[in-house]
Amino acid sequence: MTVQLAGIIVTKDSPHYDVCCLSWNRAITRHPSMIIYCQKTEDVVGAIQYVKENNLSFRVRSGTHHYAGYSTGDDVVVIDVSLMDEIKLDDDVVTVQGGVRNRELYEVVCQAGFPFAGGGCPTVGVAGYTLGGGWGYSSRLFGLGCDQLIEAEIVVSDGEVLVANRHQHQDLFFALRGGGGGNFGVVTSLTYRLPEKQEMATLINIDYPQVGIEKVAEVALTYQQLFKDLDRRMNLKMAMYHSETKGIGVKLTGLFYGSKTHAIHLLAAFSSAPCVELEEMSILEANRAIQDSHPDFEMYASGGRFIMRDYTKTELLTMLHLIQNRAPGSVYTAITFYGLGGAISDISSEETAFYYRDARFILGFQSVFEDKGYKEQNNAFVRERFNELCSYTKGSFINFPIEQGENYEKEYYGDNLARLKDVKRKYDPINLFKFEQSIRG
Ligand SMILES: Cc1cc2nc3c(=O)[nH]c(=O)nc-3n(C[C@H](O)[C@H](O)[C@H](O)COP(=O)(O)OP(=O)(O)OC[C@H]3O[C@@H](n4cnc5c(N)ncnc54)[C@H](O)[C@@H]3O)c2cc1C
Q1: Distances from the Cα of 46 to the Cα of 8, 42, 83, 141, 431, angstroms
Q2: Nearest-atom index, ligand 1, CA of 400
Q3: Whose C-alpha lies nearest to ligand 1, atom 14?
Q4: Who is most buried in 5, 41, 56, 368, counting CB within 10 A?
Q5: Residue 35 confidence (pLDDT)
Q6: Which residues line ligand 1 (CB under 6 A)?
Q7: Full set of structural domains in the chain with CATH
């Protein structure tokens, strides 16, 4: 029987094809043969049957934010769930369909007074974010995005719709919490238990523009020191940057679930920074402000690893030499530390697929450019420096993926890899869900 495709089908001849091909990272220019915009779970089941029956390569896509573009491809079918965007809030439990993005989710839960351990970028897909673990400014207090997940609905390779939670398909539930997007099936719905309601938070922006690498290293030492016993209600991201407009500097951005007065006390070591902005506001306003600081799209090369220990000033300076010059065409390059610890490390490495629970920070390396012609140079710049940073760091963060050698599975999943391969063999025995860095059963 030939499968009748449902949903909205876009092909190379469709009027909006070019727009439908866009990824958030505009440096990614892939041309799928067909994009199937699914509108309900049955459409996803039909799409899976269709690609199987016709022996077609395909990718799964939601918010299009994959750093390296593995949610799309040339001449592949894209199964896109972005139109599946319903959100249902029932007391402290929220259920979202597979295509919901951060901003819409924050609007619903924060208006009801609930925080959510989501990401900062408004257009990141909640499914992609959660499947990769999900780091956010609220994670030290409430855990990673995946730690709030209590259930997921997923269409697997035989076309069955499964529900995974603590009681059924526990092995799959383990894998869906940090095992990365696109590996086990198409997630059509996610249910989260929300943390206790919070009224206010303090938004933190501290910037040291044009200060040079010596000063940046000193600020980084202070930041590391602060994290030794930092109140888990606070989280801070530290970007050590070299920007076209602001030169070499360092910027701390963050959130504190507490008063401005208390935040000033905790951040006293940074009080002499040229720019210190601490503002107390509702959690809805705070999340909106964080989201609004993101551009609508960018062209960039990037990747992320884990930091397991503090660095000496000499080590920090060695790392900072990597951004002393920018790649050709680059307007911004940065080494960024994303705070971990707190509730993230309360959970053991074996409880969910997110392995690096005891890391101190995630390290991101990034180069942003504005002309596509510089893509290869920026990719090479980031890859080379990323390799140099390997000796200081461990593993690799699946939500900040980067092209790397054959060993990528071990890098992303550490000692959880063997279990993830078992799950892959059980739920996708024909290795249907396959892409450049998928888990191999
Ligand atoms: C600007 C920006 C900011 C970011 N900020 C953060 C952050 O603060 N914290 C953080 O943890 N990460 C962050 N990320 C990374 C982001 O969480 C991951 O890239 C995530 O995978 C994106 O999901 P997506 O749906 O938007 O992307 P897509 O490109 O659509 O998908 C990403 C991956 O997930 C798979 N996937 C998507 N939807 C589904 C589904 N329904 N079922 C199964 N697989 C699916 C895809 O096949 C692909 O492998 C950021 C990325 C960007 C570009």
Answers
A1: 12, 6, 16, 40, 18
A2: 15
A3: 399
A4: 368
A5: 98
A6: 24, 59-67, 70-71, 81, 98, 119-121, 124-125, 127-129, 131-132, 134-136, 181-182, 186-187, 294, 399
A7: 8-80 (3.30.43.10), 87-197+416-427 (3.30.465.10), 200-392 (3.40.462.20)
- 59 CA to middle of ligand 1, Å? 13
Within 179-282, strands assigned E span 186-193, 200-208, 234-243, 247-256, 275-282
Q: How much distance in Å is there from the Cα of 88 to the middle of ligand 1?
A: 21
Global pTM?
0.97
> Distance from the CA of 43 to the center of ligand 1, in angstroms?
21
Residue located via tokens 């030794």: 228
Share of the chain above pLDDT 70, in %: 99
Which two three-digit tokens encode residue 11? 């092909």
Nearest to 46 by CA among 16, 24, 77, 90: 77
CA distance 435 to 439: 9
Does residue 312 carry a pLDDT above 60?
Answer: yes
- Supply the pLDDT for residue 8: 94
At 254-281, the pLDDT tens digits run 999 999 999 999 999 999 999 999 999 9
Distance 25 CA to ligand 1 centre (A): 12
Question: Mean pLDDT across the stretch 139-161?
Answer: 98
Is beta strand 58-61 parallel, antiparallel or unpaired with respect to 77-80?
parallel
Percentage of the chain modeled with pLDDT above 90: 98
Task: Count CA within 13 A, CB hemisphere, residue 99.
Answer: 16
Candidate of 41, 48, 60, 65 to mutate for ligand 1, largest count of ligand atoms within 8 Å of Cβ = 65
